[in-house]
Amino acid sequence: HVLGQNMREAVYINLGLLALKKCIEALNKKATYVPYQDSKLTMLLSPALGGDSKTSVVVCGSMDLENAKETVQALRFGESCTNVTNQANVGARGAASLLAELDREMVALEEAIQAKERWETTRVVRKDTNIEEGTYEAAMAEKLGGEVVNVGRVVGAEKERAALENVIVRRAKLLGEDPELKLAESGFGGQMGGKATAMGGHANKRFATKSEGLKIKGKVVADWAV
Question: Is the pTM of this model over 0.85?
Fold first, then answer.
């Protein structure tokens, strides 16, 4: 049973290689029809053979005399492959063009955030359980109903900020970098940094080149608490 299965696999492999040889011959003859559909192998290789990519062919040979016939056939097949001329389509984009596109998108989003974001301050009344009786703080808390705290947060560009975080993550993954670290460097949170809050700072300060706050790689990721 095992011998029969191995024989069937060998037959399928040889049929696939025969179909590949026919496709190479058709390409060398500039034929209008190339029989890619004759084999699953050639169907999978059709984008590479048809000009949609830059293709390399590796030919393996043996120096043993008993393998001379197969080696010569392999070398002749490789020689016929070198006669096939392909030109990759302009639509094929490399990593450099993808990075350039992501960088342009990041710049546009940063400009939109700077234009839209603003500080919003709200007054929150909370109970202070540690306040001492008879103090000025206790009198003010009784008058106002509790301790009054001003809470600031950044609003106005929530969609743009979420889109920018997504672009930062995509760029980091493309370069094989740590997305969480890149988010922290850009002042957009993650496990290693805070979100755009009172500590995260306004966009004008996060993207500024000069600030008294905390900067990583030239960008402000946090303002010192006042």
Answer: no
